[in-house]
Each structure stands twice: as structure tokens, then as C-alpha cells.
Design goal:
Helix 14 crosses helix 16. The chain is globular and about 60 Å long. The protein is α/β, with parallel strands linked by helices. The strands form three sheets. It has a seven-stranded mixed beta sheet, sandwiched between helices. It has two domains: 135 residues, Alpha-Beta Complex (Aspartate Aminotransferase, domain 1), CATH 3.90.1150; 198 residues, 3-Layer(aba) Sandwich (Aspartate Aminotransferase, domain 2). The protein is built from 16 helices and 13 strands. InterPro entries: ArAA_b-elim_lyase/Thr_aldolase, PyrdxlP-dep_Trfase, PyrdxlP-dep_Trfase_major, PyrdxlP-dep_Trfase_small. This is Threonine aldolase.
Length: 391
């Protein structure tokens, strides 16, 4: 490789500098709606994990070896939470779902998976289902919501598995109603298809559905959950379902390279998340609804010509905000606000759809619970005044 090939392009260099500036502003903020693990330094993350570790693990205990010990403890806990016979720990959700759908394809004799085109495997995994596992994907709907029962029941070709992402993140963290979810799973089974839940953020759905996790999971034949999304773990995922299915999945986990020598740091962080974050998620969801309403009202009061908070009433503690400005304008306003006022209202914006229309995602977690509706309105007024070129 030549020196010129190793050198970053001006655009890459600008992006790196912008990210560094944004992270510095986020870390320096005294008020923020929600922090992510990547917002902290290695030292801060290790200190927090060490401080919490002994609440979920004995310091004198032996480390795990190829999935035993504390890894098995986490698997048993997830199975109990989801009401399934068993669960298997995976280093990534991408691998977990590859394995799940591959196993179901072998059991049903049909390698076609019906899912939404906005689902994570379609949008963010570089065609991994087809490239790695020989699966074929079809889309019962292209609407920015999960498919309904009629769309599943009347789809023009057979499929072996229906995969539902709960919530559908790229559409705005949206969920169906409970009755709609029941109906769509029943429609899949009428077609002799199994149902798999991409439940990376399943932890967030109990408030919207008004049901506990095990009752939600019971609608599916298998469920994947993430430990770093929602729960704040370092990494990792679990695949839950019938015992024979999970045992088969563990075989494929080994074949896919997921039988790691030791995994206790990530596993401990997952257990901490289950212990500390999971009980608070309904509180986050409730407050996200307060924040969303205050945002919508405040942008209207500030004279912004068009704004959309989506969903209008958030289904989880995460939602989208859309504004009619370029991402460059909005990112400058966001980072300047955090730098100068130590209040971070928005993380980052990107343009989507027509030119000049930008979207961001808002997450409300522990640090956001202190925000009142008036605090949100004041922060919005300050943010709007900082948007370049709008004075």
C-alpha cells in the first residue's frame, strides 16, 4: 500500500474531527437526555464496570471457559426472563440471527425469510443472510411499519420464517398494537411459517404492549435480544427458544466462530444491565413521552416552519425528530449548544429524504429523567436560535 492510499481523504479527516468535537461536547455536558457507552472513555467504562461487577459476580469465582460458568448463568437468566426453555449467548446479534434463521430454514425446509426492508439485516449487515447463510429475503410490506396480518396472510409466495423487528428502529422505533402483533403471528402460522423476533430492543416494549417480557416472547418461536442496546452492556446478545433449537444454535455458533475462549467482561456488563437498567426502562419510556410532547410544542413556539416528532407518542424511550434544515446546520447548533451551555439536547443529525430535511434520534434514559417539560422548552429555544442561517 502506498503512502497516498494510506492517507485519509479530506472528507474522512473532516468527519473524524467532527466526531471528536461532538464526543468532547457530549462528555463535557452537565445535562443530557441520554448517554451511550461509546460516549465515555475507556477509563470511565472500566471504572464503572469494576464498581458494579461485584453486585452480580463473586470475585473469587473462576472465569468462564468456552461458554460455561458465568456465561451459562446469563443464559439461564435470559431464558427465565423470556419464559423460554433455553437461551444461548452470542458475541453479536448479527451472528445470533444468522444462526437462528439458518436453523429454522433447515427445520422448515424453506430458506425464504419474510421481513421488513428497513430491518437491521437488510439495512445494516451487507446482505449477510444471503451471502453467509444462503437465505433469501422477501418483503410483505414496504410501508414504514411492521407488516399486518393481511399482508402476511396474502403474500404471493411461500416463506419459512417471518422475522419481526420489535421495535422497527429505522422507521422510528415503531411497534404494532398488541392485537396486531398477535394477529400477524397467527397469520404466519396459518402459512406454516415460524416466527422469529428481532428483539434487540425487546426490553423497551413492555410499556407499549402492556404485557411482561415472557408473554411477548411467547408469541414467537425464537427471540434474539441485545445486551448493549437499551441495557448498556459492552456487547453481546442472546438467542432464546425451545431447548432442541438452542442446542442446534450452539453448534452453529461454534461453526460461525462464536465459541469464544473467555467472555466474562461482556457477560458481567450484561448482568449489570439486567440488574440495574432493565427495571428502569418503563420509567424511561414514560418520560420520553413527556420529552416528545415538550419538543413538539417548543419547536412550534419557536416558529420553526415544520417539525415532526415520530411517533407522536413514542412507543419506546427512543424516537425521531425531523426538521427542515440541513444536517450541517443542525449539527453545528447541537455541538455549539453543548459546548457553550453544557446542555446537550441532540446528538447528531443526518439528511434523509428530500434535500434540506434532516432527522435525529432521541433517547431518554437515566440522566434525562431530571429534565422537566420547561427544561426541554428552554433548551429548544436556545437550540433554534443557534441554527446557522436562520436569524
Amino acid at each position: 500500500m502506498t503512502d497516498s492510499e494510506e492517507r485519509e481523504t479530506p472528507a474522512q479527516d473532516d468527519a473524524k474531527k467532527a466526531r471528536a468535537r461532538r464526543l468532547a461536547a457530549l462528555r463535557g455536558a452537565e445535562r443530557i437526555l441520554g448517554m451511550h457507552g461509546v460516549d465515555t472513555t475507556i477509563g470511565e467504562r472500566l471504572a464503572a464496570l469494576t464498581d458494579a461487577a461485584w453486585t452480580v459476580a463473586e470475585p473469587g469465582r473462576d472465569g468462564d471457559l468456552y461458554g460455561d460458568g458465568i456465561v451459562a448463568d446469563l443464559e439461564e437468566r435470559v431464558a427465565r426472563l423470556l419464559g423460554t426453555e433455553a437461551a444461548a449467548y452470542f458475541p453479536t446479534g448479527t451472528m445470533a440471527q444468522q444462526v437462528a434463521l439458518r436453523c429454522w430454514a433447515g427445520r422448515t425446509g424453506n430458506a425464504t425469510v419474510a421481513l421488513h426492508p428497513m430491518a437491521h439485516p437488510e439495512r445494516h449487515e451487507r446482505g449477510a443472510f444471503t451471502a453467509v447463510s444462503g437465505l433469501r429475503t422477501v418483503h410483505p410490506t414496504t410501508e414504514p411499519r411492521l407488516p399486518n396480518a393481511d399482508e402476511v396472510r396474502d403474500f404471493a409466495e411461500p416463506f419459512g420464517a417471518l422475522m419481526l423487528e420489535l421495535p422497527l428502529r429505522d422507521a422510528g422505533y415503531v411497534l404494532p398494537t398488541w392485537d396486531e402483533l398477535v394477529s400477524v403471528t397467527e397469520a404466519a402460522r396459518e402459512r406454516d411459517a415460524v416466527v422469529h423476533f428481532d428483539g434487540a430492543r425487546l426490553w423497551e416494549t413492555t410499556t407499549h404492549f402492556g404485557r411482561p417480557l415472557d408473554e411477548i416472547a411467547a408469541l414467537a418461536d425464537s427471540v434474539y435480544v441485545s445486551f448493549y442496546k437499551t441495557l448498556g452492556g459492552l456487547s453481546g446478545a442472546a438467542l432464546a427458544g425451545p431447548r432442541s433449537f438452542v442446542e442446534e444454535a450452539k453448534t452453529w455458533r461454534h461453526r460461525y466462530g462464536g465459541q469464544l475462549f473467555q467472555q466474562f467482561p461482556a457477560v458481567i456488563s450484561a448482568l449489570v444491565g439486567l440488574e440495574r437498567e432493565l427495571p428502569r426502562v418503563p420509567e424511561y419510556v414514560a418520560h420520553a413521552r413527556v420529552v416528545a410532547e415538550a419538543l413538539r410544542e417548543a419547536f412550534a413556539e419557536a416558529g420553526v416552519p415544520w417539525v415532526r416528532v415520530h411517533p407522536e407518542v413514542p412507543h419506546t424511550h427512543e424516537f425521531q425528530v425531523w426538521l427542515p434544515y440541513s444536517s450541517e446546520q443542525l449539527n453545528e447548533a447541537a455541538v455549539t449548544q453543548a459546548e457553550e451551555t453544557k446542555t446537550s439536547l441532540f446528538r447528531s443529525w443526518w439528511e434523509q429524504g428530500p434535500p434540506g430535511l434532516s432527522v435525529t434520534e432521541v433517547t431518554v434514559s437515566a440522566r434525562g429523567l431530571d429534565w422537566t417539560a420547561d427544561d426541554v422548552r428552554a433548551a429548544v429555544a436556545d437550540f433554534v436560535a443557534r441554527i446557522p442561517g436562520t436569524a
